[in-house]
Amino acid sequence: MRRLAAAAALGMVLLAGAAYAAGEEELPPFLKTNWSFGGTFAADAFGTYDRASAQRGFQVWNEVCSSCHSMKLMSYRNLAGIGLTAGQIRAIAASKTVPGDLNDQGEPTTRPGLPSDHFASPYPNEKASRAANNGAYPPDHSLIVNARVNGANYIYSLLQGYVEPPPGVKVPDGLYYNKWFVGHQIHMPAPLQDNSVTYADGTKATLAQESHDVATFLYFASNPHMDERKHLGVRIVGFFALMAGLTYAVKKHVWSDVHKATHDEER
Amino acid sequence: MAGLHKSDFQNPVLNWVDTRLPILTLMTKEYGSFPTPKNFNYFWNFGALAVVNLMVMIASGIFLSMNYNASTAGAFDSVERIMRDVNYGWLLRYVHMNGASMFFIIIYIHIFRGMYYGSYKAPRELLWMSGVTLFLLLMATAFMGYVLPWGQMSYWGATVITNLFSAIPGVGNWIVTLLWGGFSVDNPTLNRFFSLHYLLPFVITGVVFLHVVALHITGSNNPLGIDPKSEQDTLPFHPYYTAKDSVGMAVYFLVFATIVFFIPNLFGEADNYIPANPLQTPNAIVPEWYFLPFYAILRSVPDKLFGVICMFGSILVWFVLPWLDTSPVRSARFRPMYRWSLRLMVLSMLALGVVGAHHPIEPYVSIGRLATIYYFLHFLVLVPLFGFIERPLPLPESISKPVLRRNFPGGGGPLPTGAAAKPMEKI
Ligand code: HEM
Prior knowledge:
Number of helices of chain A: 8
Radius of gyration of chain A: 27 Å
Distance between the termini of chain A: 39 Å
Oligomer: heterodimer
Helix content of chain A: 40-55%
Largest sheet of chain A: 2 strands, antiparallel
Order of helices and strands of chain A: HHHHEEHHEEHH
Strand order of the largest sheet of chain A: 1-2
Shape of chain A: extended
Bound molecules: protoporphyrin IX containing FE
């Protein structure tokens, strides 16, 4: 009875495990890169944003992606989180045009942006953006990393995934072949090539570098409080580890007379 | 009989209060000197942990509500505003979101503890049934809470789950319309779910109170499943179990904090970071992990109505477990057959959890059906049968006996008869 049950149990676990490993998606594994903020135990626990990379990533996003994608939940002031100064932020905001108040005739107006404004969107609404993009909607980028499984690695790979379609595969007009997109046919034309931007800090703008930087910035946009969260986390987890040790010591002490009595009895 | 309570408190202020409202006497009796079996293992921590978790949920929930906007147009953005702009809003939200998962981990262990050590048997039937009620209320609360952030999974999960009720003959569609407040999951649904999500935790608090009152009438069960016979078998709750519960509490907060601060989206679905869109069905609609086994049972049954019956039945069967179990022995330590069947049942649940997370294709379909069958076989056939065919191991004479024996074998074992316990001076 015992053996039989054990064998049955083991069989079931193995079966479920094998089924799990078989998976359901046939995309190639993502490209590998090192993130300052995660991927290894040390980076997950203590890693903060690589601010230089995030700032370069903002440059890529601002110069390239923002012509199609919005980032409605971000405000210009949030850029302080990647180390931009108040002056830089004011200048970036002022270079954008955002909707203003109604004028005295009741007509809509526009004005230069302020640090407190949300990021200006490239299109007034979803319909307009579909009209401009072959019917496809470039999704808002505020949460794009969190909204995809393994988001940073996915975006890093996706941006470098534009390759010649395998022989025999016909890609319709307005669609592009991408190794890492589900179904492999995406409405987004390859947004980045080598030297799509010129980095002010002299970093070589290879496709991989640009992809890495913009993915770092997008991770920041999805998780603007990550640095603060981990910083606080190390102290709080440390505190409870200490408490666990202390309470255990107290418990042992309190129970020592019970255990001692037990042992005395035994002798 | 009306009249002032005679209080033992020396402090004049405390005495004054206690004379009129004997809450201090009550607390001392129930949590100070309360005689508690001396042989609890760490499984006995989880009830206290559940109470703490409930308080954490209520506290974080009240502060979330202050910035939450229950409307289809505003819900998603208001949750993100909490995450980005409210001071420590990200902490509140991650605590609440992961607190729900912690709650289910704790409750599942707590329920398993009850099943393993036979805590549902006489005289604890009502205690057990109030616990099953709590589990159902918890599921309802968590389900409605998950709808509130109004992401893709919130919306589509709500649509799938509420639609289940339409399988009920006659009144099904009426119930669904009532849940929706209209003809699909929409603004009225979100509004009533928020209202109920705020209400139910306080209903839970009330039932927890009944649960604890019932516990303090019957007293706790223990790993041996035999009743304490003398004072030697018990210890005062304080300081022994307050100390032991503190250890559990610290470990619980350690695990909880690690998740909240370092892997806050561990239990989450990426799709729920996409705002709800009624026109676009996600690739896969998956409920939260804690519902997966029941969801898998639902999908394992080819017929919709029967599937819904099996899904709800898989939990409702716990209500009658005290009467399905025909064995007089409580603890699985002394029940060789029951012990194995219970382990297999747990394994079926785990397998169902994996199955529920995947598209209904092979081999998941077969594994799901097998596990579903075993699940019901266990409760409806084997558990009633074991009482007649199982030969339990000999029970120890008293709790202090096996405690007295070092290297007490996990499976019990024959004990020397007639060796009466000697009094222990220390306690
Ligand atoms: C039994 C205790 C409770 C459970 C199991 C529970 C569960 C949940 C869950 C699973 C969510 C979705 C989390 C997410 O994915 O964002 C949620 C959200 C929410 N809950 Fe609760 N909750 C409980 C108590 C409360 C209480 C007492 C309140 C208010 C007083 C409350 C207010 C809210 C609010 C405003 C939200 C939306 C914000 C958000 O999604 O983070 N909850 N709850």
